[in-house]
Amino acid sequence: MALYSEHTGKKPLKYARNTVIIIILLLFALATIFPIYFMIISSLGDPVEAGAMSYTLFPTKISLESYKFFFDYSDYSLRWLLNSLIVASVVTVSNVFFASMAGYAFSKIRFKGRSVLFAILLVAMMIPYQVTQVPLYILIVNIFEIQNTYSALILPGLVTVYNIFLSKQFMSSIPGEILECAKIEGCNQFQVYLRIILPLSKTVLAVMAILTFMESWNTFFWPLLVTNTMDMQTIQVGLKNFRFANTTYFAPMMAGATISALPMFILFFSLQKYFLKGVTVGAVKG
Amino acid sequence: MKRKMRVLASICALTLALTALTACGSSSTTKEGTPESTNNTNNNNTNVSTEAAKDTITALLPPVSPAYQENFSQMEKDFNALYPNLTLKIEPASWEDMTQKLDTQVNAGSPPDIAFLGSSGISKYVEQGMALDITDAATAEMIADFDQAPLEYMKNGTGLYGFPAYMEVHALGGNKEFLEKAGIDYKKIQKEGWTFEQFREDIKKGVVSEGGKTSRYGFVFATAGVASKDYLAILVKSAGMPAAFNKDLKFAYTSKNYLEVLKDIRVMIDDGSMPKELSSVDAGKRWNMFLTGQTMITGKGLAVFENSANKNNEKIKANDGSAVKGSIPAEYIVLPVPSFAGQKAMASAVVDGYVAFRGKKEPTPEHKANVVKAAYFLASGKVAATTNNDLFAAHITKSGKKEAESMTVNRNPDNVAAVEAMLATASPARPDIPTDLGAKAIKLEDEVIIPKLQALIAGEITPEAMYDAVKAAAIQAFGEDGVVKD
Amino acid sequence: MTQIAKPIKRRKIKGDSGAGYAFIAVALVIFALFTAYPVLSALIISFQKYMPLGSKFIGFDNYIDSLKDPLFWKAIKNTVVYTVLTVPVALFISLGVSLLILPLKKKLQTVFKAIYYLPAVASGVALSVVWLWIFDPMPNGIFNQLLGYFGINNVNWLGATSTSMFSLVLMSWLSSHGTSIIIYLAALLGIDDSYYEAAELDGASFLKKLWYIVIPCLKPTTLFLLVTGVIGSFQVFQNAYLMTGGGPDNATTMVGLLIFNNAFKYFEFGKAAAQSLILALIIGGISLIQFKFLGKDVEY
């Protein structure tokens, strides 16, 4: 990266610099990763109750019993994963598409009421969900009558203000000249969006996809509210079933948490190339 | 192009306006109470009865016992076999989230027909008008099946709002070996109880420390976060305050005995019998401390803990690394809570059960009868017997006891006797406390008592300061005449 | 609020108004149904004593009660303290980490990004268990063990009013920067190399490049992270709920938790709605200031 000097010809200097950087990053990584490490090693323990859980840095015994327990515990364990996958995928695709469209409009198209509308969106974001939950529940369950369906799980999340805001902020840094050039060449707005904005925004769209997927995958309260049967529950709701009145099946819960983290990891790595290579304006200009 | 877009814009505007209208509309209908003929939204099937009317009863149930949720489909099947025209639809939810789910459904005006909850939660729903009084729908036969004491807990005012599932005592639990080492005659205490003074000396004897470092405490109670509520509630019951209000409906926690208990709470920590970090010991932590021999006595103790301890002992014996790290064989002994300020000890009873709810529409008598059938089905007979055995809880229905005869449970007979003795002296139900007073007391507890108690345990305020704060808040909430003065 | 995204004068493009509406149509409809409608309902509820079987209109009582309630003010104060201590630090840390990752080889970049992203993946409930252990008040808690090496007495982290808020802040410092790091990295990669090339011709040092190119170019991103960070922090609920329950002595009671308690624990739904609208006003005010200071020359 050009922000850093390449130290051409001074290899030792570059290595020294990178070593220092890596050490700093590793130290911070240690702190960040510790809870995850603990989650994974606890998942390798026996399926015992939580009061009986051991606080230990190194597993005394490694077994996959808890994973087995997790899948045996309920006939629906796999179904929960599938449900989460369906919901999160639809929500992610729809957000990437619609939020980027809106973000483009809010950043690059001048239209009447633009700033007012955008301000309204932001204000709505500032209201805590605890309060909007009940009216939303009334809407979905009592008015639309779609409780316990995928629609109920998906609809409220189709486009989030957060994503519109995110894409607007990123797209605002795309130089206007490029767009105008395209228009002079006869592209209409949709073509501009499709041919110029989307390719230039790959990075942020990948970020958005990951964050949205993660958010949707980890949502707990809403799916809990609108599902009535085990076969419609998502993994996050299902995981909580391991907690009982005064006890918790700790290791299987951690096994479940580990399993539920896997899809996001896969997604992260599959979108990795977009993170690594900045799809920048320069790429187009060149 | 421009025109086309103007159309679109107006559509957007219209949507906005429409939603605003529906917002107003829905709340105004509730305000005026006009019947909602347009949308039949209630998921409580308030079907008009046709001949042999089919009906569905919904129940929101947490994992009451470890094996409880596994039996859901069996329960649904059994119920349908018993009443072929009725369907029981069980919604599972985890224990701690089910209140939130239920509360959202209640606020939206469409709760399930039956939900499992603690009897102390009933008043909140009664005040909202959403709990269903089943007095007239419950048959004499059903009522007669239940023990009187737990059934009382399901009442509020004159109404009966559901059936109890079990009645448990919140007691203490001790490690048999350590108790004997400290020379404590636990069998005698199980039978006769103990005073705080005696308790204080005994837990001092349980402390093991070397060079200023304590390796074993005499007594540890889970007090982190909301658990501190249990701690104080359990102690004050044995200080002559079985409920937040006395018989004349005056707020009881302004009594001087209350201050006495607060002082004693502090004393046990200052003695070194309890850890000074007590304020962040949670339920999991103190159980870990019990199993690893870091404490002689723990609380709160439930009957089911005996089971957990036994299981861990087996794992230690098997020596396959699956037991709790550093744990030692521990035999769990049920112990009563000591009595304070010369008052009579009174065990803290907890009753949970199946509470009936109504939706926005008044349910038909047929539906109500069906709901009661379902609640009774869940609270008695085989379902109750299996569940309570799973929990090591006593059976409170005659039909449940009968079913349980054929099931075997491995329990220490001394413990069974101790629990029964405590249940006999358990704090009685107080259906006479009006819902608004109850609600005020709960809020005062949450906003003043618990926060101050946490500070007291952490050693940041004195017992007197806490007592004064509670008294001031109580006088503000209930008036000078609404509180006990002695 | 109209200052937000104030369009800088650009050459006019004809027929854009229509296209603008077309592009936001879907988003707007979904927003109207699933966000605006519940918000408007909440607004109405805030003037009522809400009851599922017939609410009562009580005017501004909910607002007045809330503003008179010392606990509400204490919660606001706690929330402000928490926000001031966490959000700027979080921005600083995530920008720093992103800048440090940037010069590394691709493979290492991936590894570190994955590591920092990890905690965001795991569910909060599972992680809170670990954090409770880290903050264990007994000498065998992780932090207390660390302090023990330095001969410092063990601290009652979450259990004392003096340390509980700091413990929550510390927890936020050491976790969950994954999202901001990813967003910052994306933005850093989006900076055109030609800027650096130009600067290098002028012989600019690393710090100069950082100050004159990177920071200004990241402004839209920083603004985004700051605004959403503050909003998130003001609504923070889960940490307080899972770790301390608001205690001890309400030292960690945040507005989000208070609203939750009012809505669900005490069934004072109208009051909860009123409090969230007051909260929204406060956040709105703060956001406005942020936009004014950072949003001025965002568009170019």
Structural description of this entry:
The complex is a heterotrimer of chains A (286), B (486) and C (300). Chain A is built from 15 helices and no strands. Residues 279-286 of chain A have low confidence and may be disordered. By secondary structure, chain A is mostly helical. Chain A is flat. Chain A has 2 domains: 11-68, no CATH class; 75-245, MetI-like (MetI-like fold, Orthogonal Bundle). The longest helix of chain B is centred in the N-terminal third of the chain and has 31 residues, at 2-32. By secondary structure, chain B is an alpha/beta fold. In chain B, helix 4 packs across helix 18 (435-457), helix 15 packs across helix 16 (398-404) and helix 18 packs antiparallel against helix 19. Chain B has helices spanning 2-32, 72-82, 95-107, 122-128, 140-145, 148-153, 176-181, 186-192, 196-206, 227-237, 256-270, 283-291, 304-318, 365-379, 381-391, 398-404, 413-424, 435-457, 463-478, and strands spanning 55-61, 86-92, 114-118, 155-156, 159-160, 162-175, 208-210, 213-221, 295-301, 332-335, 348-356. Residues 1-50 of chain B have low confidence and may be disordered. Chain C has 300 residues and is mostly helical. In chain C, 70% of the residues lie in helices and 1% in strands. Chain C has helices at residues 16-45, 61-68, 70-101, 106-121, 124-134, 142-149, 161-173, 178-189, 193-201, 206-217, 219-234, 238-244, 255-265, 269-294, and strands spanning 48-49, 56-57. Chain C has a two-stranded antiparallel ribbon. The radius of gyration of chain C is 23 Å and the shape is globular. The relative contact order of chain C is 0.13. The interface between A and B is large, with 42 and 48 residues.
